[in-house]
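An instance as discussed:

___
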Amino acid sequence: MILGLTGSIGMGKTTTAAMFRDRGVPVWDADATVHRLYAPDGPAPALLEAAFPGTTVDGAVDRDALRKIIAADPSALDRIDAIVHPLVAADRAAFLAATDAPLVVLDVPLLFETGLDAAVDRVAVVSTDAATQRQRVLARGTMTEADLAAILSRQMPDADKRARAHYIIDTSTRATAQDMVERIIAEWA
């Protein structure tokens, strides 16, 4: 069973994915994959540098440079995605081919937005109230209110994700999230 795990920024997806991983469930992490692909030994730096000169530093993709390009030309995001998404898809396919576990988790922040929900058997959405979400994101110290608003504008609203989910994992507390993770594992593993 392939479980797509998703949720908007600050909802607790990383913590929830770790709960599955800690219970022995194989977890593929889309964000971690992109970081690997952007590293000096990954395939993305050369491809992105060729398409967008000046976007690598010391052989790695400079994410700040990419953000500046996208801010100046929002259509650049589609061109970047056209380069990166096939690399991500190949990594995900290799992960799935390498496991025979009864339950695997694909941790994908933009599962619905990219249409990847069609490639999984079930979807679990991590969710909490908007105030907790905001507090979590701003507590990281790496984002402003404007940054958060920009990210949320590109993500499907939480209510819409919840409506499309097979499972809703309430991350208001660690205990409620862990309880639902255990219920999902018991059902499929």
User: Anything to note?
Assistant: The chain has a mean pLDDT of 95. The longest helix spans residues 76-97. Strands lie at 2-6, 27-29, 56-57, 60-61, 104-107, 122-127, 167-170. The longest strand covers residues 122-127.
